[in-house]
Amino acid sequence: MQARVRCDEAPAWQALHQRRSSSGTQLDLAGAFASDPIRFETFSQQAPQVFADMSKNRIDRTVQSLLLQLARECGVEAHRDAMFAGEPINSTENRAVKHWLLRSPRGASADPDARLVHETLDAMLAYAERIRADAAITDVVNIGIGGSDLGPQMAVTALQDFVSPGKRFHFVSNVDGHELAAVLAKLRPESTLFLVASKTFTTLETMTNARSARQWFEANGGQDVARHFAGLTTNVAEAGKFGIETSFGFWDWVGGRYSMWSAIGLPIAIAIGAGGFRQLLAGAHAMDRHFADAPLEQNLPVRLGLLDVWNRNFLGFGSRSIAPYHSALRRLPAYLQQLEMESNGKRVDMRGKPLSAASSPVLWGEPGTNGQHAYFQMLHQGTDVVPVEFIAVKRASHKLDGHHALLLANALAQAQALMQGRPDPGGHRDFPGNRPSTFLLLDELTPASLGALVALHEHRVFVSGSVWGVNSFDQWGVELGKVLATDIAARLASGDGGGLDGSTAGLLRRLRASA
Ligand code: F6P
């Protein structure tokens, strides 16, 4: 594997700094459009299933070519090729990164794991079809957290129009028993299928919920745990110890937040069927090919990832707001939060050396138009500039008159208002404008377009992480809290506050006080 060059060691980094003011902080978007009749064409890109308009960002042609030069100098292409070659680019865990293989069509990849991938996929889809045909199962409960929850939940929600009637889907993630109790209250053991989804099969929340679900099942007359529980995991042996006989496996080269294409996608397959799931994979695969093959200048994940670097490191924007203008995409912001922030929320490079440049922004958001009536005030007139990412779908799947045109008009109007502004010098009605946004557009929300949209984001995060020089595929930052929670759980039971800081000890006392 070729050694990676960190962005701040690349010549283009200094050149970009020199352009920061003239091509960025001082760039007037309205003026840039007025003086360049093809700005929209220059800064937009069609990729499989997804069109992106990046022209309302503070970027010009010089910056665009310097960013592409930066990607070349940082070895993004070699790094990408190493991922697609199955090299162990997750260096801190010595693992390959091959979620792309999960969506590679049969016979298309020479990777040694390809055969196993398709055998498992066939078995999982056959099982999904059996469950779909089983009218006795009315409720499917996915018990999992993080990547074992957010992907399937986001996709089942997004593809609601493709979900065959007759089954309800529930997602239980939190160790907070209120969540599981509320779901169980609606269920009967004989008509429920529990999917215990956990890459490791050791995660506290998931194991606690799975045990409670099984206790509830048995206490309420449930028969045949083997029929009513299935495991989705890389740790099939541990699932067996739990008493689960039906398990679908996957492999350590699938990161949790990249796992909705694996057995973790079983709830999606039950919801939309084997054919629908294969279309989801096909949409993602088309984006994989685009990322692998398109020249950098026309490569959408590359262009978006580089724009993210420009916004973060040169314009100083610390967050990005995700605004899906489609209510079925309401879980997308949460999904993207994990994808980007768990991947690139790192402060050291591949060698463990502190970064000198900022890495992952904060991602947050809500569907439009709801956000407009909540926090868009701040986006238009607040002291911080937050790039907004609009995600719209050209054709609606409902037949209600007028709604969709109004929805799309609002998305366009918000992007326009952020950029145009409206002067009211010294007044409260002053909109400064010149605020950046990106507009992603799908023709329709289908399994294939959703697959492409998600894969686009995976690769975009790869590109920015690659430029920053971080390992986007580990997540050591979640460990400490897990260790301390085990210690504190014991202290909550015993009352032992010895050696604790004053605040934690004080809160422990209050939580244990009887009155
Ligand atoms: O704690 C973070 C994390 O490891 C995520 O990366 C992962 O998606 C989630 O927990 C769930 O892990 P598992 O699938 O092993 O239960």
Bound molecules: 6-O-phosphono-beta-D-fructofuranose
Helix content: 40-55%
Number of strands: 11
Q: Tell me the strand order in the biggest sheet.
A: 1-2-11-10-8-9
Biggest sheet character:
6 strands, mixed
Total helical segments: 19
Low-confidence stretches: none
Instruction: Tell me the overall shape.
Output: globular
- Reading off the top of the CATH hierarchy, the class of the largest domain is best stated as Alpha Beta
Coarse structural class: alpha/beta
Using only CA atoms, what is the Rg? 24 Å
Beta-strand content estimate: 5-15%
Q: Explain this structure to me?
A:
By secondary structure, the protein is an alpha/beta fold. The chain folds into three domains: 7-73 and 294-474, Glucose-6-phosphate isomerase like protein, domain 1 (Rossmann fold, 3-Layer(aba) Sandwich), CATH 3.40.50.10490; 99-274, 3-Layer(aba) Sandwich (Rossmann fold); 479-512. It is built from 19 helices and eleven strands. A six-stranded mixed sheet has the order 1-2-11-10-8-9, sandwiched between helices. The longest helix is centred in the middle third of the chain and has 28 residues, at 266-293. The termini are far apart. Residues 145-148, 198-200, 203, 206, 256-257, 342, 475, 478 line the site of 6-O-phosphono-beta-D-fructofuranose.
